[in-house]
Amino acid sequence: MTFNELIENKDMLKNLNDLGYTNPTAIQEKALPYALNKQDVLAKAKTGSGKTVAFGIPILLDVNVKEKYKTSSIVLAPTRELADQVAKELRKVAKFKNNIKILTLCGGTPMRGQIHSLDHGAHIVVGTPGRVLAHLQKGSLNLKYITSLVLDEADRMLDMGFFEDIEKILDLTPKERQTLLFSATFDDNILKLSKSIQNDRIEVQIEEEKSTIQERFFKFSEQGIENAILHYRPKSCIIFCNTKIKCKELEERLQSIGFDALTINSDLDQIDRDETLIEFAHKSCTFLIATDVASRGLDIPNVDLVINYDLPKSEEVYTHRIGRTGRMDKEGIAISFVKGYVEYIDTELEDTNALHVKDKTPYSADLTTLCIDGGKRDKIRAGDILGTLVKDIGLEAKHIGKITINRKDSYVSIEKEFAKEAFEKLKETKIKNKKIRVWMLA
Ligand code: ADP
Ligand code: MG
60 CA distance to ligand 1 centroid (A)? Predict the structure, then answer.
C-alpha cells in the first residue's frame, strides 16, 4: 500500500515523501484508515514500527492553524525523553503546513516557562501525565477543545502508576473526543484502561514479522563482555544492566580499557541525560549502558549490537531490549550473558572464549561531538553549520557526521582527527553573523 491510498492532502503526501517515508509501515497501514476516520483505535505494535506517524498524521491534519488557542490534540507519553521524541517526529511531519505549534510539557523543567509558552497557544500538546495534570490543576492548560487524545506507550504509563492521572486528565477533555491508545502489549490492564476511556474501539495488531535480529546466549564470565565486544567491534551498542550500580561499574571498566562508554540512568540530571543521548546518537560514544527505566522507547537509530550484561526477569522486557536493534528491517545482533537459571531461555549456552577475535586492541569512537551555543532560536539550521565547517573552515563534508539543532544549542559530530582543528577554528568563526561559543564533549 502507498500513502496515496490513505491520505488525500497533497502537501502532507509531498512532505512524507520528502522525509523518505515512501510507504506506510505495517501499523500505519492498519491504523491510519480508522484513525483518519475519527474512530477510537487500540493499537499494538512493537517499538520502532512507526507508531508516532500512525497517530501523528490524523492529529496534524486536524489542526486549524488559525486556532492556536484551542489545543486540538494532546499526546501523553511516559517519560520526558519519549515525549521529546514524539514532539520531534510530529514536528517533522507537521512541515506539510506552516506554523503548526507543538508544545511539550514534561517534568524536570520549571512550570513557569511552560506557562509562558502556553500563553502563546499550542495546537498540539505532548507531555507526561504528571506535568500535564499539574497544568490542568493550575489552570494554565485547557483541554476543552480537544478532538483527539493519544496515549503513547500506554503499557509503560500504567507500569509507572499513571492510571489515575490519566483518568483525571481524560475527565477534563470533551466526551466526544477520539481516543487513540498505543501499547506494546494488550494485557488486562490495557484492556481495562481502553474500556474506561474508549468507545467502540477498533483493535489493530501487527503480527510479529520475522525478526531481523540474530540472538545469541553466552555463559556469563568476567572476561566475556570484552571478548564479545572485540569480536563484533560495534560502532553503536546498547548494554543493559539490571541496576544503576552495575551500569556504573561497567562504565568505569569499559572506559578504563579504552572504550567510549557512557551510562544513562534516572539519577543524571536532564542536561547530562540529553547530552549522553546526543553523544550516542552522534556516534562519539560507542556504548550506552542503561537500565530498563532509562531506556525504554528511545528511538536510537542504527544500533548494531544489544548486549544483555544482565538478563531481565521477564521475557517481555527482554524482547523490548533487543528491539533496540534490527529496527525498520535492518539487521541486528543481540547477545546475552546468562547466569544461573533463566525461565525463558532454553538454548544451549555458548562460551565467549570460542569467539574469533581478529583484533585484540580496544578501540574508541571515530567521531567527536561539538556543542555550539546557538540553535533554532537563533535561526541556525543544519545547513549553516555544514556551510561554516565546509566553506569557512575547509573541512570536507565526508568528515562531518550527524547534526542536531535544538532550540538554544546545536551539536555536530566530526571525525576525531579533524575535530580539534575544527573546534579551534569554529571558536574564531561566526555563524549567521554571530560569534559563537563551542564546546568539545568529552
Ligand atoms: P515506535 O513509536 O513504534 O517505536 P517511531 O514512531 O519512533 O516508532 O518510528 C521509528 C522510526 O521509523 C523513526 O525514526 C521514524 O522516523 C521512522 N519511520 C516512521 N514511519 C516511517 C515510514 N513510513 N517509512 C520510513 N520510516 C519511517
Ligand atoms: Mg514511540
Answer: 16
In this structure, which residue's CA is closest to atom 10 in ligand 1? 48
- Delineate the domains of the chain, giving CATH numbers in brackets: 3-205 (3.40.50.300), 213-354 (3.40.50.300), 367-440 (3.30.70.330)
Contacts of 429 (CB under 8 A, 6+ apart): 388, 392, 393, 436
Q: Which parts of the chain sit beneath pLDDT 50?
A: none
* pLDDT at site 266: 72
* 238 three-state secondary structure: strand
What would the DSSP string read from start to end of 305-327?
A: EEEESS--SSHHHHHHHHTTBSG
Instruction: Show the ligand 1 pocket: residues with CB < 6 angstroms.
Output: 21, 24-25, 28, 45, 47-53, 89, 299, 328
User: Relative to the alpha carbon of 126, which ligand is closest?
Assistant: 2
Q: What share of the chain is helix, strand, coil (3-state, %, to 5)?
A: 40, 20, 40
Q: How far apart are CA 312 and CA 34, in angstroms?
A: 36
Residue showing cell 506507550: 153
Q: Are 11 and 97 in contact (CB under 8 A)?
A: yes
Ligand 1 atom nearest 85 alpha carbon: 7
What burial letters (b/e) apply to 67-82, b meaning 16+ CB within 10 Å? ebeebbbbbbbbbbbb
> Which of the ligands is closest to the CA of residue 55?
1
Mutate to test the pocket of ligand 1, among 7, 19, 25 (most ligand atoms within 8 A of CB): 25
Polymer length of the chain: 442
